């Protein structure tokens, strides 16, 4: 971090607006009748829009706020991506939680988890990192169990136990780093044991091997909007935090490269024969985490690493949310139930195809540009074998995405109502727009 240090609270305006949205939304919801709690969703959406506007005003800044929090391109990208992704998640949640007895709490928990995600991205101190990890995790545990059914409760328990275990390991790493360096600030030259322990918590949030086991169960057991949120938004902060640590603390690129290789490969292999689309998307999410770990592994070794991570994480977020939005619109998790979707609901079917081919990395979608940058960063950083492995995994992933796409157009499904899925249409259009505008966007710092 080379920017100047500053102590102006307005440097944290995007974060403060998200927090204000959560607090005002909670207080407002306490006095609203059950059938009017949708107002809280609008309050939260306005707060996120304000956060996005404040982030746009902060583009180009590079400073340290309160000696603990970095306000730089990495943080600004996370702020913007989290704001947009959380807006989409709120849109999905409003369709599911509308009229529920505790509708307000759904929106507030989403906002708090989003705030923790942004803080993860900007943390430049170990204690801030731990606090952000807890804030990003605890509301998500509650969201997964919010429906109070058997599957959701089981998924939440697995999610919580994995998160608590990895969090303890992360705290042990922080303790060891503090004991050896005498400070909680990010410092280079950390012991290998401390690096491994610190990685545990962030790999859990990112969905990377070996802390990935919770993802399929959480995606299947939670409500569809919550599954979309927890498999997408927390990853944004986790990968930015990993990149920052790889630049400033870690000196073990080979370890990170091996984790990236294992994550993308195991995620793809597990996704091959999934018949539950939510589990398929969960394993797809794990494989995508492997690709996103590639620029982390070459952080400081290639000038392409940072733009690769920044663009890919934004591309992945909007594309993955779009795929989950189609699942919510269709109202079914079984692969065979998507047979004939193109005939009865052509627009959601088109959105699904765009998002699934986008996750493969098909032009002109945004993930295509992100993957090209990832491959180039790996090659430029001296890890040609990792670039080749990522390319092989990309080709292999076509199989299970096509298993979902083929029946959409070729199958004759049972009679089902026509669906629209406006969030899916918006997300798929956003994925294509990001890809087309990638040249201009990559110039913005």
Please provide a brief summary of the model:
Helices cover 73% and strands 2% of the residues. It has 445 residues and is an all-alpha fold. The two termini are 15 Å apart.
Features:
445 residues; mainly alpha; 3-stranded mixed β-sheet; 3 strands
Question: Could you explain the architecture of this structure?
Answer:
- This protein is an all-alpha fold.
- The protein has a domain at about 270-445.
- About 75% of the residues lie in helices and about 0% in strands.
- It contains 19 helices and three strands.
- The chain has helices at about 15-30, 40-55, 75-95, 105-120, 125-145, 150-180, 190-205, 215-220, 225-230, 235-250, 255-270, 275-295, 305-330, 340-345, 345-360, 365-380, 385-410, 420-435, 440, and strands at about 5, 65, 70.
- The protein has a three-stranded mixed beta sheet with strand order 1-2-3.
- A hairpin with a 3-residue loop joins strand 2 (about 65) and strand 3.
- Helix 2 runs antiparallel to helix 3, helix 3 runs antiparallel to helix 9 (about 225-230) and helix 3 packs antiparallel against helix 10 (about 235-250).
- The longest helix has about 30 residues, at about 150-180.
- The chain starts with a strand and ends with a helix.
């Amino acid at each position: 971090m080379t920017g100047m240090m500053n102590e102006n609270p307005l440097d944290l305006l995007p974060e403060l607006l998200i927090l204000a949205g959560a607090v005002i939304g909670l207080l407002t919801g306490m006095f609203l009748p059950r059938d009017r709690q949708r107002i809280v969703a609008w309050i939260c959406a306005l707060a996120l829009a304000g956060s996005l506007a404040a982030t746009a005003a902060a583009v180009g800044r590079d400073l340290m706020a309160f000696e603990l929090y970095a306000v730089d391109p990495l943080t600004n990208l996370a702020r913007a991506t989290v704001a947009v992704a959380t807006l989409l998640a709120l849109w999905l949640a409003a369709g599911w939680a509308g009229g529920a007895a505790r509708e307000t709490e759904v929106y507030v928990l989403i906002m708090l988890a989003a705030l923790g995600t942004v803080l993860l991205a900007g943390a430049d101190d170990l204690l801030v990192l731990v606090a952000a990890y807890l804030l990003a995790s605890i509301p998500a545990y509650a969201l997964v169990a919010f429906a109070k059914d058997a599957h959701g409760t089981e998924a939440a328990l697995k999610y919580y136990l994995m998160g608590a275990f990895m969090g303890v390991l992360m705290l042990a790493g922080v303790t060891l780093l503090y004991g050896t360096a005498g400070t909680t600030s990010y410092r280079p030259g950390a012991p290998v044991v401390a690096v491994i322990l610190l990685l545990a918590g962030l790999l859990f949030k990112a969905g990377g091997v070996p802390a990935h086991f919770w993802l399929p169960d959480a995606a299947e057991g939670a409500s569809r909007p919550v599954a979309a949120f927890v498999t997408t938004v927390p990853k944004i902060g986790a990968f930015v935090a990993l990149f920052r640590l790889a630049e400033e603390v870690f000196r073990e690129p080979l370890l990170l490269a091996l984790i990236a290789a294992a994550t993308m490969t195991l995620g793809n292999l597990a996704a091959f024969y999934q018949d539950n689309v939510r589990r398929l998307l969960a394993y797809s999410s794990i494989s995508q985490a492997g690709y996103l770990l590639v620029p982390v592994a070459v952080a400081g070794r290639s000038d392409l690493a940072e733009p690769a991570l920044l663009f890919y994480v934004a591309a992945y977020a909007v594309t993955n949310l779009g795929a989950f939005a189609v699942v919510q619109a269709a109202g079914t998790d079984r692969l065979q139930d998507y047979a004939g979707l193109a005939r009865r609901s052509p627009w959601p079917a088109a959105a699904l195809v765009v998002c699934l081919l986008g996750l493969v990395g098909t032009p002109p979608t945004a993930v295509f540009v992100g993957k090209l940058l990832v491959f180039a960063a790996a090659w430029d950083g001296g890890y040609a074998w990792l670039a080749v492995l990522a390319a092989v995994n990309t080709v292999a992933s076509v199989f299970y995405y096509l298993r979902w796409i083929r029946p959409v157009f070729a199958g004759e499904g049972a009679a089902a109502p026509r669906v629209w899925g406006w969030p899916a249409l918006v997300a798929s259009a956003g994925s294509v727009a990001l890809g087309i505008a990638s040249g201009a966007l990559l110039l913005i710092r």
